[in-house]
Amino acid sequence: MKRSKAERQRLLNDTMEETPFINDEQLATMFSVSIQTIRLDRMELSIPELRERIKSVANNHWDETVRALPMEEVIGEVIDLELDKRAISILNIRSEHVFSRNKIARGHHLFAQANSLAVAVINDELALTAKSELKFTRQVKEGERVVAKATVEGKTDKGLRIVQVNSFVGQEIVLTGNFHMYQSNEE
Amino acid sequence: MKRSKAERQRLLNDTMEETPFINDEQLATMFSVSIQTIRLDRMELSIPELRERIKSVANNHWDETVRALPMEEVIGEVIDLELDKRAISILNIRSEHVFSRNKIARGHHLFAQANSLAVAVINDELALTAKSELKFTRQVKEGERVVAKATVEGKTDKGLRIVQVNSFVGQEIVLTGNFHMYQSNEE
């Protein structure tokens, strides 16, 4: 079913609000149009390209610093962070992240992105993983970009901080689960 | 309580049978004697040094080849493997595996060792992780050696293979849990 241009641009706007880190290729597939059409739509709607949108999110919303580890020890690029609340990072899946044989991302790299984001979001000098429960719901291939979103959800009976993490490629969830984090002291 | 030499050597023999990959430092701590005393005990009991014991286990019991991935993609050194049954690997925790700040091993390296062992033990060309449930029960420090033991435990309702993994430093468990593995076909 072919959509009118107005209809497509309205949906495009909605999609960008829900998933600001979707790229032009994914949008083109979603709307069954060419990438060039998506680019023209974005220009007409004054939606900047992905790289600019990521920068903008980082500049607008991110005024905190990770505490539990040096920033360079986070796996993936942190683009949003509010300590003890939420964090977002991006990991581009390259050749070093995949099985040589089938180019599918290895589980421990997706784990590393999610786990280090769970560490980063904790507002404490010390944050250690006590438990993890994860589902890997879709294969991730070389060349895809994984957006991980961590949300601090409260505490367990034992006082461990629960961090929920969902990782996406485009709008598809690829990893979902939670970490129980030990931290050294209460804020 | 100081043990007699005969008593200590009897316990040492038992300990070596249960945990053949324990090292002299750990034994010295366990028996509250010097490392030199442990070495002399081993000589008298004709127990070879750790390196030789590891080689011996590898040579005696390991006559299979991993199928789901090239051996060099396994994180850690596989020292025992029986496809679809069990596998053991060793990972020496070095500076690149730890948080710079506190020298505690990062969760994703322990995950990587356990997860890649779970992949390696599957007797199939394709093995992918669908789910993991893990507890990190003790911090692992730089310089420690982690022995991961994977056991294939049957199948879930959905036909996923369950692999139980326990990782140890000496006799202490540091990681325990399981992976649900998708494989491409039945043998």
TrEMBL record, chains A, B:
The keyword Amino-acid biosynthesis does not apply. Keywords: DNA-binding, Fatty acid biosynthesis, Fatty acid metabolism, Lipid biosynthesis, Lipid metabolism, Repressor, Transcription, Transcription regulation. InterPro entries: HotDog_dom_sf, Transcription_factor_FapR, WH-like_DNA-bd_sf. Transmembrane segments: none annotated. It comes from the Bacteria. Belongs to the FapR family. NCBIfam families: PRK04424.1. Transcriptional factor involved in regulation of membrane lipid biosynthesis by repressing genes involved in fatty acid and phospholipid metabolism. This is Transcription factor FapR. The lineage of its organism: Bacteria, Bacillati, Bacillota, Bacilli, Bacillales. The gene is fapR.
